Amino acid sequence: MRLCACFVTMKKIGFNEALVRILKEDRRYHAEAYFFVREALAFTSRMLKKPARGSQRHLTAAELLDGMRQYALREYGPMAMTVLDYWGVRNCADFGQIVFHLVDKNILRKTENDSIRDFEHGYDFKEAFRGPYQRQKAEVRMQNEK
Prior knowledge:
There is one protein chain. By secondary structure, the protein is an all-alpha fold. It has one domain. The chain contains 7 helices and no strands. The protein has helices at residues 15-25, 31-47, 61-76, 80-86, 92-104, 125-129, 131-145.
């Protein structure tokens, strides 16, 4: 009996090809939500001055969630929650699902300590995306009453 040692090498796929595969498997989120997460990840890395390589490059779920919040407010202002909702993203757990879809397709990496559950209790979307503008309106009202 002869044993054959066969190795199958997997070709790394790019973001667009991974996205096509993800959307075939799970249609809960609009394609734009995945592009948003990718852009928000880059934004957060720059904001936190993370190096391009090495173990210090890793972002925690909390860091990424805060970066996504800031990026959404910067890009979409008072419409951020409406845009995210249109894409199917209604809470932090949805961001976690998107991130882990990208991890599953080897577009993003995770450490052994990272879990999808890290995204479950990030922040309340209403407070995060509408709160800043409601407080701003209240401040303007108070200024006008003086």
